[in-house]
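Next up, a chain.

===
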Amino acid sequence: MAYFITDECIACGSCQDVCPVEAISEGDDKYVIDPNLCTDCGTCAEQCPVEAIKPGEEK
C-alpha cells in the first residue's frame, strides 16, 4: 500500500530527494506520491520534518 502526503506538507522537497524509485513529485500545493511507483519503503516518511507522510491510501 503506497504512502501519501497530507496537507501538513510544507513543500520542502526533502522526501523527493530520498525516494529511491522517484515516485514523489512537486504538486500544486504540496508534494505528491505516485501510488503506482511507490514501493512502500517508508524512506520518505522518515525524512519528512513535519511528519506529513503517512502509510496507506489518502482518504
User: Anything to note?
Assistant: The chain has a mean pLDDT of 95. Helices lie at 14-18, 43-47. The first strand starts at residue 3 and ends at 5. The two ends are 13 Å apart (CA to CA).
